[in-house]
Amino acid sequence: xxxxxxxxxxxxxxxxxxxxxxxxxxxxxxxxxxxxxxxxxxxxxxxxxxxxxxxxxxxxxxxxxxxxxxxxxxxxxxxxxxxxxxxxxxxxxxxxxxxxxxxxxxxxxxxxxxxxxxxxxxxxxxxxxxxxxxxxxxxxxxxx
Length: 144
Hints:
This protein has 2 helices and 7 strands. The protein has helices at 42-49, 98-101, and strands spanning 4-12, 15-22, 31-38, 63-71, 85-89, 131-134, 139-141. The longest helix is centred in the first third of the chain and has 8 residues, at 42-49. The chain is mainly β. Strand 1 and strand 2 (15-22) form a beta hairpin.
């Protein structure tokens, strides 16, 4: 692809750095998103100030948008295609607790914002990066 994955890394309280890595390749059930914008919500602000405790290094950003630049081999091309604009929320719910199984993943009893996501160099939500690997269950197509 000739590009690099650039990511904003929380190195410590009040300390961010931009780092570069190889762009990850899609797994069979993933899409690669080129991120165009990422929300900075109060969660990231609190992590930056040390109010929300995280293990460093950490990548924030759990609500973002962009466009699909690559598809894994098992992705249904009747619905997903390179060039599709998408919004995505990083998924850290366990999918196993009562809340998740009842459709309330936002209230997951085992929510883990510090998972190590595929394709990212550090743990965390990952949206403050230039590229992101996602399953289509966490993506929503949007128009122009």
